[in-house]
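Figure 2 data, in text form.
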Amino acid sequence: MDVIAEISREKKQGQSLVPTSAALTQTDIQQQITRRVQERMVPKQGDLLATEPLHVADVVQKTVAVLVEQTIDIPRISVVPKGPVKSGYKAFKLDLSKMNFQPQDMTLIGQGLKTGKQILYGESSTVAETRLEDYIVRELINYDDVSYDEHAELIYELSGQAVAHFKTYLKTDEELHNVLSSYGKPIAENIHLQMAHSYYEDMSESEVVVSQGFTPIKSCAFTAEGEILPLHQAPDDKGKIAQYVYGGFSKCAYPVQKFHSDTERVLAGLLERDARRWFRPVAGQLNIYYRSGASQPEYVPDFIAATADFNLIIETKAAKDMEAADVKAKADAAATWCKHASEYSQAQGGKPWKYLLVPHDAVTHNATIAAFTSSVRYVSRYLSMNSSSWHGCSAQWTVASDLSLVAEFAFLQPDRYDTMNRAELIEALAERSELTKAQTAAYAGCGA
């Protein structure tokens, strides 16, 4: 497997030597693998006893056949900026509702350990600032992502908002200096956390680079208690499902898997029934990163699966969390990744990629993966970038209304849902809710 992983990273004339896992079955590629394996098997000393010769070529052929059958081709994709990248923080209004610091007594008191007697030593000293905002600014510039030269105007503006807030209830300059010098660090920490939400990054131009046509599935290890459970067996306490290991799969790329929720276990059952191959990815398998303030953490989705027509990235979420900011950011990043992966895969004669964001109440034992792939776009505006305008209207509806209403309609009447235009969709949703048609259109933000 090390040799296969090595060859999967190599290029010839700027192109991947093996653009897909199927390319490993080519005679010249298998000859290269066989030769490299043989080189690594050469003994340093002669064997004392005669042994049966190992037919490396046959082993390579069988190993490759199993790998191609068991794997899902996941390209390694990077978006590389071309030209300058502009980044910074947008101006915003601070939330100061939790900043209600009070002046501290600056007197220093010493107390004897044996006698318990207290002695006054005077007052603690701090570096006084002429400008009140400087108490906060001097703490803000200690953060690695805040530069005085680049962000001076913004941090003084934000510090000024904080100072103006403290002036509303602190009556003297002495009290202001006391609070700002004593609490400058936590004040700056609060401001910095809010700054992260206004961070922006602007690439004038970018280039999509596919460094590997496919990446071997990463190994993973589990810790668990008890025996390996069959997939149909729900734990007695579903809240403790993460403690258990499940196995006995026929279509999973791993022999065992763990789940974070019972929804994931049920969805795995659907994949066992409907998919050709599936698994739960580990960190570093997809390398999808999303924006969370000034940082870019990795997004590891719940499932990767392959059907006859699509490669799928699947995420399940509680219905109430479908419109959360981090869920949207992850969905946006995953949909962008799928777009680039589809372009590469289809150019190689492979299947397109789809990202499915599924509410937990849609994951039932009688649901199907085919229904998800055809109708699940109602749950997020990220799922179908090329759909007609009413799909966007549908997604906006879910922001202001009940997602389960749209879910029920799409799953119970998928044929009608797929052929409706925007106006018909709004009217149908209104019929199934307590809202009027006008209210529905207004909530959807689509206009008349």
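Caption note: The chain has three domains: 2-70, 86-202, 257-386.
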